[in-house]
Amino acid sequence: MTNGTFLRLARRRFWLLVSPLILAMLMVVLVIGCGRQEKVPGYRIGLGPWVGFGPLYLAKDKGFFREAGVEVDLIVLTGLAERSSALRSGKLDALAAPVDYFVLTAGNGLPTTIVMAIDESVGGDGIVAKKSIKEFADLRGKRVAFQRGLPSEFFFRALLQEHQINIDEIKFVDMETAQAGAAFLAGNLDAAVVWEPWLTKAREEGDGHILASTRDYRDLIVDCLAFNQEVVRQKPGEVQKIVNAIFKAIHFAGDHPKEAIAIMAPYFQVDPAKYEKILQGVNFTGLKRNREYFGTPGKPGPIIQVASRASQVWVAAKVITKPVNPENIITTDFVSAGGR
């Protein structure tokens, strides 16, 4: 064997032995590299079974949260105490609820930061009354039902204040909304504070009429997204991603209503046709409406007045002991920086 042949064989044997080692080392590097990739941050948002929260489900199902670089778990909580407990314990990072709820929790030592509006009631909530009750003054001495702690109570108390009627002049009955609607239809109540479909049923089947609704007071019941204040301070960029993803879903619903309704309806255990009908009393609040509602630090929008009004209502109801400053629980930063 010549020296040249020997060298060629030696080189060949060397590479046969070394190549698998190099390949193995490369695989290790790739595995380590993959293991070091940052996990997508995850956030937990609590919400009730209200049809206006459809855009949150839409944002998740369409992948808008993931596209923005965050993961979001949507957790349905029906009880007010349950929601507050989950927020206080850190089991939730954010909650979807009306403005008055966040004023109430702040007044009870659980401040959050409201970052955007999701939907507003535009006729979906109201007061049904017997036809003999033609104006608010006629409610004095009458049996009126509403469920404590829900937007119905805030709405009713706010309108009583506006008409200078004391709650003590009303024979108040604490009753769940569905029960209140059924009791009104049965003739056991003079009036009830309810939402759809009970407003329509009361008018059509209960020989009643709508004394007032959010169609005429559209700023009062607006569902918002509020975060734990620590999350807002520490992760504002990720809060903005979530806000933007929800805006994207809201605008998608406006541009593609049939597809959006088909996605959202099953989450509320109704078919798309019924869900579409229910939404006639609800508006999803896109970026433009949010900017109107929140305003700017120099020119505050209606949300500040609504929060102030809620503070007055809850103090008068003795469920909070001192007023809540709206500026401590509301920020315009995320709406101002929001995009479609």
Give descriptors for this structure.
five-stranded mixed sheet; alpha/beta; D-Maltodextrin-Binding Protein, domain 2; six-stranded mixed sheet; 18% strand; 48% helix; globular; 15 helices; 340 residues; single chain; 11 strands
Explain briefly what this protein structure is.
The protein has 340 residues and is an alpha/beta fold.
How does the SSE layout of this entry go?
Blueprint lengths: L2 H33 L6 E6 L6 H8 L2 H5 L2 E6 L3 H10 L4 E5 H9 L4 E10 L3 E6 L12 E4 L4 H12 L8 E4 L2 H9 L5 E5 L2 H8 L2 E6 L8 E7 H6 L1 H20 L1 H8 L7 H7 L3 E3 L2 H8 L7 H15 L16 H4 L4
Parallel strand pairs: 1-2, 1-3, 6-7, 6-8
Antiparallel strand pairs: 3-10, 4-10, 4-11, 5-8, 5-9
Helix pairs in contact: 2-10, 2-11, 5-14, 6-14, 7-8, 10-11, 11-12
